[in-house]
Amino acid sequence: MNKQTDKKRKDPVIIVLDIIIVGLIFVMIYVGMNALFYMERADKRSFEQDSSGMAFDLQEENYASLIQSRHINEINGNTKPEAYHLLADYVQAAFMYRIYDAKEYADRAALMKSVMDESRDGMGELEVFADKVDKMIFGD
Predict the structure, then answer these.
(1) Angstrom distance (rounded) from CA 21 to CA 29
(2) What pLDDT score does 41 carry?
(3) Which residue ranges make up each domain of the chain?
(4) How far apart are CA 44 and CA 62, in angstroms?
């Protein structure tokens, strides 16, 4: 007998399934590599805010982002841009003071006023921005 006639032909369905399996293997490799890449980038240090980013927030008068950056740094244990953190505390306390004062919550307003005073004492040259916040919030 002839060897060619003894060889069976592969079913086309099996060929298609083999191609699908090989394709799925490549997709899994691609997804796995992307997952590793993004897991490395999600290291907590990548979320810390530095003073240049916080200065940009001030330049754009984006006080909400300044406060957010301060809290992100607090979560990550970063206390480096101290003056910016104090300014963020001042802005947050000023907003809260204004709300508590309008609602006539004297105790809470007094607490926020003390936070404002403590923050203003340590912020140094950023005190100019505290004056801008005062004008914006209190209209003085």
Answers:
(1) 12
(2) 65
(3) 10-41, 49-138
(4) 23
